Amino acid sequence: MVAKESEVFISRVIGLPIVDAAGDQVGRVKDVVCYIRADGLAPRVKGIVAELFARARIFVPMVRVHNITPNQVAILGQVDTRRFQRRETELLVSADLFDRSIGRESRTKIFDISMHQVRNREWELSSVALRSSTRVGRFGFGGRGDAQVVSWREIPDLILRTGRTAAHLIAEFSDMKAADIAQELHDLEPESLLAVVEALDDETLAEALEELPEDEQIELISQLDTERAADVLAEMDPDDAADLIKDLPSDVAEDLLQRMEPEEASDVRRLLIYGEFTAGGMMTPEPVILDTDATVAQALANVRLEALTPALASMVFVTRPPLETPSGRYIGAVHIQRLLREPPTTLVATLLDDNLEALTPDAPLAQVSRFFATYNLVVAPVVNHEGHLLGAVTVDDVLDHMLPDDWRGDQMDEVEVSEVSDG
């Protein structure tokens, strides 16, 4: 088997130092987390287990892994420092697969597995290195045979068996959009739903939860233990988390907010003070914000972040420091189309849309919707009376609040009827 250009054997990654954007070491790689996928797809690498200097182990998703070299693993952005907790459907490559026997006679064992990059910051398992004990030696010890490298497809433990178990469903979810996962959760029987939800990672569950009808969101979050519910809420967009928390009993809501990370809870609390059908209640506090000395090149680098929705990536906002919301004095906004037409060294602050006014946080839904229609926008700034940027409203949140309360449930029921008719 010819090694792919980006192929990396995991035994060589384990133990490497992990460095941040400044080049400072933050820990070491202890293992690689993957999960098996359905329909004959290669197992996907989910992230790495990192051991910090305090010996606490955390999870670093592959989207944060910028580069892997023979000497180090470089990461970008913030990582969650909560202690790593393994999900039922996850495999730890070193702990679970290294030294595992293959075949009936158990003389062939896995001694290494490679992964390769299939696209930007997405990795899959690729090759499996095997070593066989060819004979029993004079003193009863196995002799060592030649090593061979085979495809992951030849290893039964890396192939998903057929069925509709929680593991099989989650494997299918790995390549599905959040709305489609929500539809699957909506259709599951209560017993199966609980098993799947328990095995899902917090980020995937949060994204699917945002797509469920409100009553199902409340029912599902209420069935989780408090710590897990707080973790899932922390992974949701702050505006969606705030909408959900508003519908919970006040004592339950406060308990969840207390258990969330302070920074994430602070974002949600700031949104809770606004009415649900106002610009402040609909906005996200995490738009793309740049300083006045930022260049077009820096702006484009920021909007390329995978975590951004297309709507949020369509506009950048310029403010004085601090650049976190509520920001310093709001200067203005620039559309991505304008950024794409300018030289990379141009200052973003010279490209502001002078005709775009900002929304106030108390602007009602009717005013917000007319504002979007008037300016043909997919995202708009929200600025308070002191001139500070509070966040941005996206068109999907406007539509979500304009549609009937039960529109998600009606849509899911229509899908079910359509599937029955097609059958």
TrEMBL record:
Q: Which CDD domains match?
A: CBS_pair_Mg_transporter
- The superkingdom listed in its UniProt entry is Bacteria
Note whether Lyase occurs among the keywords: no
Assigned keywords, A-Z: CBS domain
Return the InterPro entries for the record: CBS_dom, CBS_dom_sf, Mg_transptr_MgtE_intracell_dom, MgtE_N_sf, MgtE_transporter, PRC-brl_dom, SH3_actinomycetes
Q: SMART domains of this UniProt entry? A: MgtE_N (SM00924)
Q: Which GO terms describe its molecular function?
A: magnesium ion transmembrane transporter activity
- Please report the stretch or stretches of sequence annotated as the CBS domain: 352-414
GO-annotated cellular components: membrane
The cross-references to Gene3D superfamilies, in alphabetical order and at most eight, read: CBS-domain, MgtE N-terminal domain-like
The protein here is known as Magnesium transporter
This chain's source organism reads Tessaracoccus aquimaris
